[in-house]
Amino acid sequence: MADPWPGNANVAADPVAPVVYEGRAPRVPSHLKPIGREVWRAVWSAGSGAYSPDTDRLIIQRYAELHDRRAALLAAVEADGLMTVGSTGQLAVHPAMRYVESTERELRAIETVIDFHPEARMRLGIVAAEARRVAAGPEDF
Length: 141
Hints:
Elements: H1 34-47, H2 53-80, E1 83-85, E2 91-93, H3 96-113, H4 118-136
Antiparallel strand pairs: 1-2
Helix pairs in contact: 1-2, 2-3
C-alpha cells in the first residue's frame, strides 16, 4: 500500500536506487590532477550505474576538482607550516586554511547530493545483502 502522506518520516523510503546508466564510466577529464583523477574513478565505480554521464558528469567533475583544490591548499600549508606571522607580528593560522574549510563545506554538500556518506552506504549494503539472500533461495538456508 502506498504511503498516503508522502514524505512521512515514519514510513521507510524505498532504498533501491534505480540503475540509470549501464555503460562505461566517462573518460577522466584531462585537467584533473592525480587526486581528482582518483576521485573521479572512485565515484563512477562506486556509483554502479546510479549516475548518468548526461546529468551527473558536471557535479562529479566539480567534486573531483574540489578534491584537487583541497590537496593543493593542504600542500601549501604543509610547505609553509600551519602557523604564520600575521600583519602585526602575531602568530596566525595559515590563510589557506580558510579556503580549506570552505572547500570542505562544498565537498560535504556534494557528498550529500551524490549519496557519498555512511548512511547511503549502509542502505546500499542492506539492499545488497537482501538481494543476495533472495538470489540464494530458501534451499540454501
